[in-house]
Amino acid sequence: MEDIVGAFLIGCEMTVIQLNNISVEFPIYNSFNRSFKNRVLDVATGGRIERRSDRLVVVRGINNVSLTFREGERIGIIGHNGSGKTTLLRVLSGIYRPTHGSALIEGQSVSLININLGIDPDATGRENIKLRCAMMGMKPSEIANKLDEIADFSGLGDFLDMPFRTYSSGMQLRLAFSASTAIQPQILIMDEWLSTGDESFKERANERMRSLVNSTKILILASHSRSLLEQNVTRVIWLEHGGVRMDGMPDEVLAAYFDHA
Question: CATH code for 2-107+222-260?
Answer without folding.
Answer: 3.40.50.300
